[in-house]
Amino acid sequence: MHDNVVPVSINLLIFLLSAFLGLGLIKKVSKLLHTPLMSLTNAISSVSVVAALIVMAEPKNILILTLATIAVALAATNVISGFMITERILRMFKKDNGGKIK
């Protein structure tokens, strides 16, 4: 049986290209769309967490296990901080008892 194995260098190249593309796209987003964009990136990061956990379940070698562990840590940090920032933004717009926005 022949396994379709993609070399690490190709995977790294794809990662770097997607990182630069993502950075370029996010820089052009209006400030008004910041919160919806954050919600979308939280969803993408949660998918990344699940994917990295699946990879960690059956690692082929120590490099893959290390990279998957780093991916889980970074994506989980992004999800948690995104929810914290979104909650803080929403608290800014809550009304107090007098009916005025705080």
Description:
- The longest helix is centred in the last third of the chain and has 31 residues, at 62-92.
- 74% of the residues lie in helices and 0% in strands.
- The model has no long low-confidence stretch (mean pLDDT 76).
- It has helices at 8-27, 34-57, 62-92.
- The chain has a domain at 31-92.
- It has 102 residues and is mainly α.
- It has 3 helices and no strands.
The major pleated sheet works out as: none
Give the low-confidence spans. none
Shape: elongated
In total, how many beta strands? 0
How widely separated are the two ends?
A: 65 Å
What is the average per-residue confidence, as pLDDT, rounded to a whole number?
Answer: 76
Q: How large is the share of residues in beta strands?
A: under 5%
Radius of gyration in whole Å, from Cα? 19 Å
Helix content: over 70%
Oligomer: single chain
H/I helix tally: 3
Element-by-element helix/strand order: HHH
SS content category: mainly alpha
